[in-house]
Amino acid sequence: MKAPLIGITTFRRIKEGQVTQHAISEMYVQAVVRAGGVPVLIPVELKQAEAEVLTARLDGLLLSGGGDIHPERYGGKPHPKVGSVDDDRDELEINLVQLAVEAGLPFLGICRGIQVINVALGGTLYQDIATQCEHPIRHAYYPDWPRDLRAHGMKAEPDSQLAKIAGSTAFEVNSLHHQGLRDIGDGLRAAAWAPDGLVEAVELVGHPFGIGVQWHPECILDAPESVALFAAFVQATGTSSQPPLFCSLIAK
Ligand code: MN
Question: For residue range 42-96, what is the model confidence (pLDDT) as tens digits?
């Protein structure tokens, strides 16, 4: 079996007087493994040339969650609520999305990941939903709520790739974000919405698999939509000769 290599972006934990650490939640890693992929963690420091070398060898790219993108990346002036910005991470992940788009490499963006996809393709963000959107529902269920809390409903476009993968157009999702998509980037279509009208998923039209979701499917692996999303992502890499291990493993 030639198992697909799935790159997963990481973040840096920088503390004064301590060695900087690269980190990512084990949930992303487990979700990829259970879907039949082999995770490859991508350090933040990679430059353009190295990102090109890496994407040429990867079979898929998973853009993980994390801190906010610097607003200057999409022409915004920093809002007081913007936090945990890492310019190097922004630079790398925007590069990776553009490389994946050019190469037809399957990619999945989660939370910050959908925002990176949107900004990389010329879109913009609400820097803080609670203060910049009209009549928003609560989306920021962190850090004091369970990560698998079903925070709000979501409606998907019936003809979207997402709805076909999920086998449903309406389901409950978790919500651990304070930012959201404003103007949608070039080539993307909105595929799902929260009850307040906020875009919760996008798809890159004509790409083999280019999906971003604003929720965290890796934290709700007991939901069939989450299982199906990771399975479809890994299968879209076209190198997996075995069915995903996902369903049997999470049943334990
Ligand atoms: Mn939400």
Answer: 999 999 999 999 999 999 999 999 999 999 999 888 888 888 899 999 999 999 9
218 part of the active site: yes
Residue 200 bridge partners (DSSP): none
**Catalytic option among 177, 216, 219, 225:** 216
Residues sharing a CB contact under 8 Å with residue 7, sequence separation 6 or more, in sequence order: 40, 41, 42, 54, 55, 58, 60, 61, 62, 96
CA–centroid distance, 129 to ligand 1, in Å, is: 10
Q: Full-prediction pTM beyond 0.90? A: yes
Question: What is the distance between the alpha carbons of residues 12 and 22, in angstroms, rounded to a whole number?
Answer: 5
d(CA 163, CA 176): 22
> Is the CATH number of domain 5-251 3.30.1330.30?
no
Chain-centre distance for alpha carbon 4? 18
Considering 200, 203, 218, 225, which one is annotated as catalytic? 218
> Are 188 and 123 a contacting pair, CB within 8 Å?
yes
User: How many CB atoms neighbour CB 210 within 10 A?
Assistant: 26
Tell me the HSE value of 87 on the side-chain side, using a 13 A CA sphere: 1
